[in-house]
UniProtKB/TrEMBL annotation:
It is found in: Membrane. SUPFAM superfamilies: Family A G protein-coupled receptor-like. The lineage of its organism: Eukaryota, Metazoa, Chordata, Craniata, Vertebrata. CDD domains: 7tmA_CCKR-like. This is G-protein coupled receptors family 1 profile domain-containing protein. It comes from Oreochromis niloticus (Nile tilapia). It is a multi-pass membrane protein. GO terms for molecular function: G protein-coupled receptor activity. The chain crosses the membrane at residues 41-62, 83-103, 123-141, 162-182, 214-234, 268-289, 309-328. Coiled coil: none annotated.
Amino acid sequence: RWDSIRQTSYSSFDLSFSNFSSNDLADLESMLLWTLHEPSTIALTVMYSLSFILGFVGNLMSLRVLTSRRSRQLAGVSATRSLLVNLAVCDLAVVCVCMPITLGSQIYTAWVYGDLLCRAVPFTQAVSVSASVLTLTVISVNRYYSVRSPLRARTMFTRRRILATVAVVWTVSSMMCAPIAVMNRRREISFETFTILVCQEEWPQHRLKQGYNVLLFVMLYCLPVTFNLTIGFLTGRRLWGGKKSTFSDLDPRSQALHTSRLKMRQKIAKMVVCLVLLFAVSWLPLYLADLWIDCEQRPSSWLLQTRPFAQWLGLTNSSLNPICYCFIGDLYRSAKVIRTRYYQKVASLFNSASFSSSVTVAPPAAGITDSKVSSAERRPIAAAVAASASMVTIPRLLNLARLAVTKQRLLCEYNINVI
């Protein structure tokens, strides 16, 4: 962008800054750098703000739900949930690092964030996108084997192997995106009396840049999306096209258990396909825009003005992912189920406790009648007996409430670990 501005200013007409006053130069600099008055920048500011709030809150809530259990219970965490934690970390990195600085560089086009962030921000965006799509690939493979051979999937996707897989995903992503951190540099563009700092990629040859962008498009978009959609189709065919009479010989309780497992696996399969489709739709415009700009020596103005919106759409993918793997995946719903069942259990315990207290108070009242105590004297004695009975019942009630909460938590964890 700045190269085209410079060529236009020097080749189209002879611009001499010596005739300008200091105020004129300040106005010219402000006109070149500040774009907040432009309608496109105002629209991007609103869009980035909404995406940032949605992504920050959504990913934090997702991490809280996905990692809510204590360390002693981490052995039972399923492979899918562990991989979703890694996906949420990738999305949170994009939201917290890439979105604010991308919007800031759009509002004030000069790069004022230093050489380190000039290399780190594009690198973080590329690594996060790569780690996200590779994590989706591992999730797709995990779900396929969980449906095809559940016993083999449990031995293959243990907690230790999942952690090793996550480490490999981040290592491969960093190696593939390392040239972005090397080639991005902060550069000065001089306009006689003032200079403008910009951050851009500087490759030895333009063909190397074109080849690298094509490589990223194939390795991080075409192949993973095609593979994930294919394996998602195979998983769905086994889930929805299987024999429905497989468990007909079992007892009703076992049939209900297998039916609930099948429904949960179907929901997770839908979630994975939604994540892959959302990734494909969000990042395709930016990939195509970058490839188009690399193929043209002088890109058209509408293409350069459209690219920031394509980049916003790609970054917003990190804000929309929590909606898929938390609401479609039933994780937030299971948290609500725990709370609702807890309140219902405590309320039923209180009702049963009040009933038992009335039954316990009845024999002493009969003894008082036999001893010919007046009705005026019975009331305080009965109240005292009821109070003592309630004092005995409260500790038992608290113990029952603790047992009920533990039971409901185990049941909910069992239902989640089925996936």
